[in-house]
TrEMBL record:
<feature type="binding site">
    <location>
        <begin position="133"/>
        <end position="137"/>
    </location>
    <ligand>
        <name>GTP</name>
    </ligand>
</feature>
<protein>
    <recommendedName>
        <fullName>Translation initiation factor IF-2</fullName>
    </recommendedName>
</protein>
<feature type="domain" description="Tr-type G">
    <location>
        <begin position="78"/>
        <end position="247"/>
    </location>
</feature>
<comment type="similarity">
    <text>Belongs to the TRAFAC class translation factor GTPase superfamily. Classic translation factor GTPase family. IF-2 subfamily.</text>
</comment>
<feature type="binding site">
    <location>
        <begin position="87"/>
        <end position="94"/>
    </location>
    <ligand>
        <name>GTP</name>
    </ligand>
</feature>
<feature type="region of interest" description="G-domain">
    <location>
        <begin position="81"/>
        <end position="229"/>
    </location>
</feature>
<feature type="binding site">
    <location>
        <begin position="187"/>
        <end position="190"/>
    </location>
    <ligand>
        <name>GTP</name>
    </ligand>
</feature>
<comment type="function">
    <text>One of the essential components for the initiation of protein synthesis. Protects formylmethionyl-tRNA from spontaneous hydrolysis and promotes its binding to the 30S ribosomal subunits. Also involved in the hydrolysis of GTP during the formation of the 70S ribosomal complex.</text>
</comment>
């Protein structure tokens, strides 16, 4: 759109190509029929023939496909926080996620501790909290590398009998880089060797000063083994969420990110996705990376079929053409045909990039052999 071939320009001006070429020569531009001239040159030539070139604005396929309007603050509603659990190996990340999941039974939820997908919601004080069920930083880092910023709050698990260890520091750095608020769960409080005061002291070296010491880092002593302190941890997560004023607009087309995905023999591609804004409805067409499709079956974190999913809701869906990657952003769209076109475009680009890096590798190998 910012350039045009001489032939095309001639036909639009209803002139012979040689007439146009002559005019171009008059302007000091040498171009054959098949060569292109830029917009400004084309406009000058057109003027000479008494015509005007209207500058076509190039609209990308993304611009046509996606609903890119910002939400009016007035339509925003409170949404649950999205929480990830991080920390050093063996400090109790998996155990804490299990202990939190068990609170669903006492909350009287149907289905109890059955959990079908890689993220789940619990209720504390009448409010939902969404947990990403991938402990450690895999979820976090791989998703952030793909541009998905899912988490609002990071629970940093530190074993009270072990203190801050290398992966604790790594976790702190990841969370800080992402601008995610850290809440510390001082775990294994049931152990006789538990020394929470020492953990707090170590934390201050990483600019995490406990509230009780005048800082703004919430530290909650817990035991994943006995369940002690878990309700307190959830309550504090909710307090933190309130301070952060997390909001979304449930009344627009859904967008969010893929948490995990797999190929199921019977169902085809199955993806756990997290809706970040808007509401996803069964039957909606979505695009996630190079995958497209209509949401055929949508299930909640208990494996129950549902029709709609609002902000911060994790759901499992089927209906995509291929398995998307964790961290791929998804968006519901109105035009399925255009979505498929964009997916093809992305796939082609990916292939090109892969080929490029392949060539680079072989060249590098070649040079290293010389
Ligand atoms: P992760 O590597 O951080 O996921 O740690 P795990 O949850 O797998 O826990 C590592 C070990 O610590 C396991 O043997 C757990 O049973 C144990 N553990 C976890 N939480 C507690 C706790 O609160 N108290 C005690 N005594 N042991 C715990
Ligand atoms: Mg684990």
């Amino acid at each position: 759109p910012d350039e045009i071939t001489v032939g095309e320009l001639a036909s639009r001006l209803k002139q012979t190509a040689s007439n146009v070429i002559k005019k171009l020569m008059g302007l000091g531009v040498m171009a054959s029929v098949s060569e292109v001239v830029d917009y400004d040159t084309a406009a000058l030539v057109a003027e000479e023939f008494g015509a005007k070139v209207e500058h076509e604005v190039h609209v990308t396929i993304e611009e046509r496909l996606f609903e890119d309007v910002a939400d009016d603050p007035g339509v925003l509603e409170e949404r649950p926080p999205v929480v990830v659990v991080m920390g050093h190996v063996d400090h109790g990340k998996t155990s804490i996620l299990d202990a939190i999941r068990k609170t669903r039974v006492t909350a009287g939820e149907a289905g109890g501790i059955t959990q079908a997908i890689g993220a789940y919601q619990v209720e504390a004080g009448g409010k939902a909290i969404t947990f990403l069920d991938t402990p450690g930083h895999e979820a976090f880092t791989s998703m952030r590398a793909r541009g998905a910023d899912l988490t609002d709050i990071a629970v940093l698990v530190v074993a009270a009998d072990d203190g801050i260890m290398p992966q604790t520091i790594e976790s702190i750095n990841h969370a800080k880089a992402a601008g995610t608020t850290i809440i510390v769960a001082i775990n294994k409080m049931d152990k006789p060797q538990a020394n929470p005061e020492q953990v707090k002291e170590q934390l201050t070296k990483y600019e995490l000063v406990p509230e009780e010491w005048g800082g703004d880092t919430i530290c909650v002593p817990v035991s994943a083994l006995t369940g002690q302190g878990i309700p307190d941890l959830l309550e504090n997560i909710n307090l933190l969420a309130e301070v952060k004023e997390l909001r979304a607009n449930p009344n627009r087309r859904a967008k969010g990110a893929v948490v995990e995905a797999r190929l199921d023999k019977g169902q085809g591609p199955v993806a756990t996705i997290l809706v970040q804004n808007g509401t996803l409805k069964k039957g909606d067409c979505i695009i996630a990376g190079t995958a497209v499709g209509r949401v055929r079956v949508m299930r909640n974190d208990k494996g129950e079929p549902i029709e709609t999913a609002g902000p911060s809701t994790p759901v499992e869906i089927t209906g995509l053409t291929e398995v998307p990657a964790a961290g791929d952003l998804f968006e519901a769209v109105a035009d399925e045909r255009l979505a498929r076109e964009l997916a093809d475009q992305r796939a082609a680009k990916q292939k090109e990039e892969q080929w490029g890096s392949y060539q680079k590798v072989t060249l590098d190998n070649l040079f290293s052999q010389i």
